[in-house]
C-alpha cells in the first residue's frame, strides 16, 4: 500500500492527480483483517501512551462535506480505550471565539500528556472556508499558514505527536453521498443546502487544500492524503498511518513504565520494612 504522506513544505500537490479510490490490487477482506490486527496494536500502544505520560497524540481530520470525518472517528475511536480519548468538533466560531485569535479555541482542546485528541475540522478551517467564502481579507488568512506551523511546532516540542489527514473524495462520490442522505430516512437529518452550495466552490476548495498541503506539511506535523471513496480503505490508511507513527515510541514508553514500576515496588518494600 502506498500511503501519500507529505512531511515538508513547498511540495506542489495536484489533488486531481491523486486517486480517491483504493489501488487495484487491494483486497477488501484482507484489508478488514489487517485493520483488526492494527486495531489491537493501536489499543496496546494507547495503553502505553497513557501510562508513560511522555507524549500526547493529536489527530486532525479535514475533508470536504461527506468525506467521512465522522465515520473515521467512529472507527478509529472504536479501537481505543475511551479513557484518554477526546473528540473536538469545530463549527462556525461563536461570538466569543471570534473575539479571540483563531487558535484560541483550538489550543483549549489540545491533548495533555497521555491523551489522544481527535479534531473533527480544526484551525485549518481558518485558511479553507474562510478563504473560499471570503470571510476575512487575504492579507489576514495568508499570515495564518506561518502561525499554524509555529503553533504545531510548539505542540510537537511539548511532546505532541501530530498526524493530519485529508480525506480525499471525488466529486462523483460526494454527489452520491449527498443524494443518499435524501433517500435514507436515517441520514436525512444531515441534509444541509449549504453542502450543495459548497459543491459550487469545488475548485476553490481544491486550490485551498493544495495550498494547505504545500504550506503546512512539516516533519513534526505531516499531512496524509487518504483516498476516501471507499470507507474500508479510508479506515485502513488512517489506522495504519497512526500505528506506524506510534510504534517507534513503544520502547521508550515501555521503559518508562518499567522504571515507574521498579520505583513503586521499592517504595512498597521500604514501607513494609519500616512497619
Ligand atoms: P460537518 O459538516 O463537519 O459534519 P455539521 O454540518 O454538523 O458538521 P458543524 O459541525 O456545526 O456542522 O459546523 C461545521 C461548519 O462550520 C462547516 O461548514 C465549516 O466550514 C464551518 N466552520 C468551521 N470552522 C470555521 C471557521 N473558523 N470559520 C467559519 N466557519 C467555520
In short:
Residues 26-251 form the Polyphosphate kinase-2-related domain. The protein is an alpha/beta fold.
Q: What does this entry look like structurally?
A:
This protein has 275 residues and is of the alpha/beta class. The chain has a single domain (4-273), classed as P-loop containing nucleotide triphosphate hydrolases (Rossmann fold). It is built from 11 helices and 6 strands. It has a 6-stranded mixed beta sheet with strand order 1-6-5-2-4-3, sandwiched between helices. Helix 1 (28-52) packs parallel to helix 10 and helix 1 runs parallel beside helix 11 (250-274). The radius of gyration is 21 Å and the shape is globular. The chain starts with a strand and ends with a helix. The mean pLDDT is 96. The structure holds adenosine-5'-triphosphate (ATP). Adenosine-5'-triphosphate is lined by residues 65, 69-70, 89-93, 121, 125-126, 129-130, 135, 192. Residues 65, 69-70, 89-93, 121, 125-126, 129-130, 135, 192 line the site of adenosine-5'-triphosphate (ATP). This is Polyphosphate kinase 2 family protein. Belongs to the polyphosphate kinase 2 (PPK2) family. Class I subfamily. Keywords: Kinase, Transferase. It comes from Archangium minus. Residues 26-251 form the Polyphosphate kinase-2-related domain.
